[in-house]
Design the sequence.
């Protein structure tokens, strides 16, 4: 009888321990998700403080053709300036590559980026920020039809559900002037499976089996192929290139397969 009581008491104690651990994990998870937008903004601010020259050279080459765009806004055209809308602006990591005198309208759903954004923009006096709109790319009603010459999206589409990507691309076409340009840069699923098959496996594991990447980076999917979605969105032309980005940090190696391109409305 005593042995049975002891065993029963031991089972109860184990149950209490398991319930306690489960409660702590639930609380940690709740706090992490409830504060995710705040700490994600800090994480991205921390990750983008260091400038990697090889990556900046890729961006410089990609955005260089913006300097030849002539605005359809008479006032801006007179100043030899253009209006750029950047979706998912974050801290403003692309500012260094926008043409002199550009007018910016920026969109980001995370309000906690704004303080980092404001701090960064002080370094780029050659740009004029017209508005910071807290919204998502598929709900840009505050931006007028045909009002921007260029739309820029970098490392954003990887974090959106496929239906939201399609809605965002429709909004991009709506706000662009006729003949306007959509510049995109995204990391994508590994495309060289003969040489880097292991990276595709790793991308899948970190996105689906052990989904730490979506958790840390606000829904980011490592194994998405974005190009077909853009090609089927209704742009008059899409010129794109897949390449392996010169990422110096081994932690971000799963993001090495990249896509860059320009689509025309």
Sequence:
């Amino acid at each position: 009888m005593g042995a049975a009581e002891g065993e029963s008491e031991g089972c109860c104690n184990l149950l209490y321990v398991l319930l306690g651990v489960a409660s702590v994990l639930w609380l940690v998870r709740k706090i992490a998700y409830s504060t995710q937008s705040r700490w994600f903004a800090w994480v991205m601010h921390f990750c983008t403080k260091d400038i990697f020259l090889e990556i900046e050279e890729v961006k410089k080459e990609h955005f260089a053709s913006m300097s030849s765009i002539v605005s359809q806004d008479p006032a801006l055209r007179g100043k030899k300036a253009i209006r750029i809308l950047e979706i998912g602006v974050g801290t403003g990591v692309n500012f260094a590559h926008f043409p002199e005198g550009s007018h910016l309208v920026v969109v980001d759903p995370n309000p906690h980026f704004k303080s980092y954004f404001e701090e960064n923009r002080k370094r780029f006096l050659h740009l004029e920020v017209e508005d910071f709109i807290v919204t998502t790319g598929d709900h840009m009603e505050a931006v007028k039809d045909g009002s921007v010459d260029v739309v820029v999206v970098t490392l954003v589409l990887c974090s959106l559900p496929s239906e939201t990507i399609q809605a965002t691309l429709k909004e991009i076409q709506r706000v662009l002037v006729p003949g306007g340009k959509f510049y995109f840069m995204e990391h994508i699923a590994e495309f060289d499976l003969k040489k880097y098959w292991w990276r595709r496996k790793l991308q899948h594991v970190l996105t689906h089996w052990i989904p730490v990447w979506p958790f840390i980076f606000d829904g980011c999917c490592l194994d998405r192929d974005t190009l077909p979605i853009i090609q089927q969105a209704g742009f008059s032309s899409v010129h794109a290139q897949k390449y392996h980005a010169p990422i110096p940090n081994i932690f971000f190696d799963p993001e090495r397969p990249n896509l860059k391109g320009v689509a025309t409305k």
The CA atoms of residues 106 and 132 lie 5 Å apart. The chain has nine helices and seven strands. Residues 23-34 have pLDDT under 50 and may be disordered.
